[in-house]
Design goal:
The structure is a single chain. By secondary structure, the protein is of the alpha/beta class. It has 13 helices and 14 strands. Strands 7-6-8-9-10-13-14 form a 7-stranded mixed sheet, with helices on both faces. A 5-stranded parallel sheet has the order 2-1-3-4-5, with helices on both faces. Strands 11-12 form a two-stranded antiparallel sheet. β6, α7 and β7 form a beta-alpha-beta unit. α12 packs across α13. It is globular and about 65 Å long. The termini are far apart.
Length: 383
């Protein structure tokens, strides 16, 4: 064989071996020929574990449905979830690991603003999409090129609460909140809603420690104003403890909460003491089968869990996962983070099945839908 031909053959073999690595290097993070990996940090254990598992299960239910039908453009959707136990340092470490080691395509479904905010510098650094954080807090609603909110804001919820009760002549409102940045945003939202109606809170209950809230002290502060309605903006354990303490004290004000903690975890924690507590919701009732998205959700979550266990939280996650899949479909067979976000930006009046999502290049808050529900004696919800 001619020596020159040997060198040429070796060069061609080297190029052939290098080609797959080159093609792989050009792939967007989290994308392979057969999969797309979405990353999530959520409290699967510890405080707020019910909420975190609900979020994860709702997303898994929709991704499973899609994967069973062949995936998106031939790729399966995988959800890589890391447990943060509702601890901010762990959530921040998880975000870094997901983006820099696991190299996921996008982040999804963090359980609160406090867990989500440390991820923001990282998603901007890596130009990664961040979808459906389970929070309506104002700091997460400020426009960010990479963040897409599917739900309404807490301000929307608190406005709805004040609007509803003032319609019936209620004028004396109190608020229970955490004495931190996010909690003070909730306080400000209530104050704005009341000020529009020439009212102001008659009392406030502020918890300085999220881990060990002073329930007795907070209730005492609230009761001093003799409110007719108490607005709760705390985690489900703190909210439930305050409701039970109020009942024990014979305090009969109407208790109403925003969606911060998730409706089902609060109802479960309260048990028989939950009857009559009202909650703002950002999605329709998960039992409202007249809506196509609810009917679709029920079938999918039953298959995922092996039982009929419905919740507002898992329905919200199901809808968020549906938005991800639709954007991936629109992005085409060669998805990148850029064309995925461009697809999201083009979602005007996207109907998930009775629940509309609206994004644009300058507006990433996709919905302002809010309804009030009441916990019944059998832990069901009524409107």
């Amino acid at each position: 064989m001619i020596p020159g031909n040997n060198r040429l053959t070796g060069l061609l073999i080297s190029l052939a071996l290098a080609a797959p690595a080159s093609v792989q290097a050009q792939q967007s993070p989290g994308v392979t020929a057969s999969t797309i990996v979405i990353g999530q940090s959520a409290p699967l254990t510890g405080a707020n574990a019910d909420l975190g598992n609900d979020i994860r299960n709702g997303a898994l239910a929709y991704f499973r449905k899609v994967n069973d039908s062949g995936g998106v453009n031939g790729r399966r959707i995988e959800l890589a979830t890391l447990d943060d136990a509702n601890q901010v340092p762990r959530a921040e470490a998880n975000s870094k690991k997901l983006l820099e080691e696991t190299r996921v395509f996008a982040l999804f479904g963090y359980a609160s603003a406090t867990l989500s905010r440390p991820a923001l510098p990282l998603v901007e650094q890596h130009k990664a999409p961040f979808l459906s954080p389970f929070t309506g807090a104002d700091p997460m609603r400020v426009f960010n090129r990479h963040v897409y909110n599917v739900r309404a804001s807490y301000a929307d919820e608190l406005e709805k609460i004040v609007e509803h009760y003032t319609t019936f002549g209620v004028k004396r409102f109190s608020i229970v909140y955490y004495d931190d940045a996010v909690g003070k945003e909730n306080l400000a939202a209530v104050e704005r809603a009341l000020k529009k109606r020439n009212l102001a809170p008659v009392s406030r209950g502020a918890f300085k420690d999220r881990a060990k809230p002073d329930i007795a002290g907070g209730l005492k502060d609230v009761m001093q104003g003799e409110p007719e309605v108490v607005i709760l903006t705390t985690l489900y354990k703190a909210s439930a403890d305050l409701v039970r303490a109020a009942k024990k004290a014979g305090f009969e004000a109407q208790m109403v909460s925003n969606s911060f903690h998730g409706a089902s975890p609060l109802a479960k924690e309260l048990g028989k003491d939950g009857a009559g507590v009202a909650i703002a919701q950002d999605v329709p009732a998960p039992t409202k089968r007249s809506l196509p998205v609810v009917k679709e959700y029920q079938a999918a979550i039953e298959k995922q869990l092996g039982k009929k266990e419905y919740s507002f939280t898992s329905l919200e996650a199901f809808i968020g996962a549906k938005v991800i899949v639709e954007a991936l479909r629109r992005a085409g067979p060669k998805p990148t983070r850029d064309n995925f976000m461009a697809a999201l930006d083009g979602m005007k009046d996207f109907d998930t099945g009775g629940y509309l999502i609206n994004f644009s290049p300058t507006e990433h808050n996709g919905s302002s839908y809010v309804e009030l529900t009441v916990i019944g004696k059998n832990l069901t919800f009524s409107y």
